[in-house]
Design goal:
With 170 residues, this protein is of the alpha+beta class. It is built from 3 helices and 7 strands. A hairpin with a 7-residue loop joins strand 2 and strand 3. The protein is globular, with a radius of gyration of 18 Å. The protein starts with a helix and ends in a 9-residue tail after the last strand.
Length: 170
């Protein structure tokens, strides 16, 4: 069942990508856009995640929403030596979460681990969209199709890898 769902997702994503390319070409031909506009993220379970090497030092903005859980809000996250070194809540929910349990805010690698676990456990939805460099820009999880408030959505933005001198492992 899970393999059928994964295959269906891959086919759907392939179709959507073809549609996006066709629309971009049409927009470019009509002078409404060009292929140099910002790249469109691609979706799949793991094709990019397996090829993306999480740096030891980076910063990103995480918007966590959906479901009944504590990690809700928008956060600016700084990672050093592969661990969350600093978290700043950027909205009321985020500030409250940082006061209560800052250790709940994950690295991007931690989010990818959640995605993999959800996929392995047969979640109804375990999807991600990836930037051209391979880092995820959106992760959507829904363990059970008909369960109420178990959904999780993570939007990753303003991703900035830091130079090696900013905190790499030795």
């Amino acid at each position: 069942m899970a393999s059928v769902r994964l295959l269906s997702s891959v086919v759907l994503v392939g179709g959507l990508m073809c549609t996006v390319v066709a629309c971009e070409k049409a927009a470019g031909a009509s002078g409404q856009g060009s292929s140099t506009d910002s790249p469109t993220p691609t979706s799949s379970f793991s094709s990019f995640a397996e090829s993306w090497d999480e740096p030891d030092a980076y910063a990103y903005t995480l918007t966590s929403s959906e479901g009944e859980r504590s990690l809700i809000g928008t956060f600016r996250v700084t990672v050093r030596d592969g661990k969350v070194a600093k978290v700043v809540g950027l909205d009321e929910s985020g500030r409250g979460e940082v006061r209560r349990a800052p250790e709940e805010v994950p690295t991007i690698g931690g989010l990818l681990d959640q995605l993999e676990r959800a996929h392995d456990e047969g979640a109804d939805t375990a999807e991600a969209e990836y930037a051209p460099d391979g880092h995820p820009v959106r992760i959507t999880l829904d363990p059970e199709e008909n369960a109420v408030d178990d959904e999780q959505t993570y939007v990753i933005s303003d991703y900035e890898p830091q130079p090696a001198s900013a905190g790499t492992k030795s």
